[in-house]
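Progress note, sequence design subtask.
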């Protein structure tokens, strides 16, 4: 059987790490939506309201669950490089959107001065940027080739 030459880092990241992170994100959306909202906006700025925020966070959880299935199931089921690139390209759009939303949130909270950032702010931005860079590297072909390698 031949498969595209995709570096093992990407295989591990996209089929194990990404779905694991999303599993815990989905779990937080369902079990503790106030906690998830607090990672975006501190309760002092926007207190959690289950009627308005809860419904939206449950829907976000469902969408993240869908993404987790794309990573943990679909990408394990096929080594089709075009499909992997479509999934990762779409996810890169999500990552870039999250970075823009983060920036807008910081502006609205008057936290453009880095000294006002909380540890969670740093984590959110750095982690999202990190995964976006992984996707850019993959889509750019770093560690990926169309050459087929024979798998036992």
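Output:
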């Amino acid at each position: 059987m031949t498969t595209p030459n995709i570096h093992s880092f990407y295989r591990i990241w996209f089929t194990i790490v990404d779905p694991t992170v999303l599993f815990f994100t989905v779990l937080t959306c369902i079990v503790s939506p106030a906690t998830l909202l607090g990672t975006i906006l501190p309760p002092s700025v926007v207190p959690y309201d289950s009627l308005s925020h809860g419904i939206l966070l449950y829907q976000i959880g469902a969408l993240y669950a869908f993404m987790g299935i794309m990573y943990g199931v679909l990408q394990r089921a096929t080594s089709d490089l075009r499909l992997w690139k479509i999934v990762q390209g779409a996810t890169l759009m999500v990552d870039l959107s999250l970075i823009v939303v983060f920036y807008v949130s910081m502006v609205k909270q008057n936290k453009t001065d880095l000294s006002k950032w909380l540890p969670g702010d740093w984590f959110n931005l750095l982690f999202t940027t990190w995964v976006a860079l992984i996707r850019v590297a993959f889509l750019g072909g770093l560690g990926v080739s169309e050459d087929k390698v024979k798998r036992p």
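Residues 34 and 48 are 6 Å apart (CA to CA). Work on this subtask will continue into the next period as scheduled.
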